[in-house]
C-alpha cells in the first residue's frame, strides 16, 4: 500500500459527525510528519464519494482554505450536514467532534 492509499484508508474510517486533524491522519497512516502529504493527498483525492476528505481539518479546528472540492464554504456545509458544530470564529469544536481512533 503506498502513502496516499494509507492516508485514504484512514480518512475512510472517520465516522459521520466527527473530524480528524491533518496531523492525526498522518500519524495514523504511519508517519506523524506527513501532515503536508495528507493535505496534498486529499487535494488530489480520486474518489471523494468514498473518501470524505472534508472531515479533515486543521488541528485548531480551522477549515482548509484550499479545500479542493468547492472551498471553505462547501467544507463547512458538508460538515454541518454531518452534524459537526462550530464555534463563533468558524472553527470545529474539536473537544467535542474530534474522532478518537481505536
3D structure, described in words:
With 102 residues, the protein is mainly alpha-helical. The protein has one domain: Arc Repressor Mutant, subunit A (Orthogonal Bundle). Helix content is 40%, strand content 4%. The protein contains five helices and two strands. Strands 1-2 form a two-stranded parallel sheet. Helix 1 crosses helix 2 and helix 2 crosses helix 3. The longest helix has 11 residues. The protein is globular. The protein starts with a helix and ends in a 5-residue tail after the last helix.
Strand count, sense and barrel status of the largest sheet are:
2 strands, parallel
**What is the average per-residue confidence, as pLDDT, rounded to a whole number?**
92
Quickly give the CATH architecture.
Orthogonal Bundle
Question: Can you tell me the CATH class?
Answer: Mainly Alpha
Report the strand count. Answer: 2
Oligomer: single chain
How many distinct folded domains? Answer: 1
Individual helix count = 5
User: What Rg, in angstroms, do the CA atoms define?
Assistant: 12 Å
**Helix-residue proportion:** 40-55%
CATH topology term: Arc Repressor Mutant, subunit A
Order of helices and strands: HEHHEHH
The outline comes out as: globular
Strand content: under 5%
Head-to-tail CA distance between termini: 21 Å
CATH superfamily caption: Winged helix-like DNA-binding domain superfamily/Winged helix DNA-binding domain
- SSE-based structural type: mainly alpha
Largest sheet: spatial strand order: 1-2
Low-confidence spans: none
Chart the SSEs and their pairings:
Blueprint: H1 3-11, E1 20-21, H2 22-29, H3 35-43, E2 56-57, H4 72-82, H5 94-97
Helix pairs in contact: 1-2, 2-3
Amino acid at each position: 500500500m503506498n502513502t496516499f492509499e494509507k492516508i485514504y484508508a484512514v480518512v475512510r474510517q472517520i465516522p459521520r459527525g466527527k473530524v480528524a486533524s491533518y496531523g492525526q491522519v498522518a500519524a495514523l497512516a504511519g508517519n506523524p510528519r506527513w501532515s503536508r502529504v495528507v493535505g496534498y493527498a486529499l487535494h488530489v483525492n480520486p474518489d471523494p464519494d468514498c473518501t470524505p476528505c472534508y472531515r479533515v481539518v486543521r488541528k485548531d479546528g480551522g477549515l482548509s482554505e484550499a479545500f479542493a472540492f468547492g472551498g471553505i464554504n462547501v467544507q463547512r456545509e458538508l460538515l454541518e450536514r454531518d452534524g459537526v458544530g462550530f464555534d463563533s470564529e468558524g472553527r470545529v469544536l474539536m473537544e467535542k467532534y474530534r474522532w478518537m481512533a481505536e
